[in-house]
Model the fold of this input.
Amino acid sequence: KDLIKRYGEGSYAVITGASDGIGKAFCFALARRGFNIVLVARNQAKTEQVEKEIRQKYSSVRTKIVIADFAQSNQESFFKQIMEQVRGLDVSMLINNVGVGHGHYLVKLPEEQLKELINVNCIPQAVLSRHFAEKFIERKSRSCIIAISSFTASFPMPVLQTYGATKSFNDYFSRSISLEYPEIDILSVRPGYVDTTINKNVRQKILLIDTEKCVEA
Done:
């Protein structure tokens, strides 16, 4: 499909976790297709560097940075501040990519990391999808929500019990809202090992694909 025609000339893609990994690859893949890009991430310097690279490669693409630390997503007004910064933009795509990947046996997994897994991997997807779906159903063109789940959502796995559960949430949530809103294109992506910081300890590098291949697929 010609995505820019499907979702609207001049529209924006909002990408969470945009400063690195799969999120960064989505920025370039969608900029190449003519979308303007909203980069949502926590690291100002890294995000500005990605924005600079996008502008250098695709000079006609407009960009906007929203700084947000999703580990704080349970705080009051957290999402209100994000939505205020994209007010007035014709957003047609939401890429729910942000995530963390802590893994250990449950009793050895620090409580702080348990909470971070849920705060980063689950809450943003639910709340941002709710806010943008409300806007998407009013657009004349179609809109799209893509959720980055994981193959770990497919079956129980030791050491990744909480991470896999959060990714199961991503997948189940996406499938459910796709039934509620058939007028919105909703896709749950469950990749295997992608060459990102989450998978930095994978010893068999032959199992890895790069972020660009993941996003193109």
In short: Strands lie at 12-16, 36-41, 63-67, 91-96, 143-148, 184-189. The mean pLDDT is 93. DSSP finds eight helices and six strands in the chain. The helical segments are 3-7, 21-32, 44-57, 78-85, 111-121, 123-136, 161-180, 211-216.
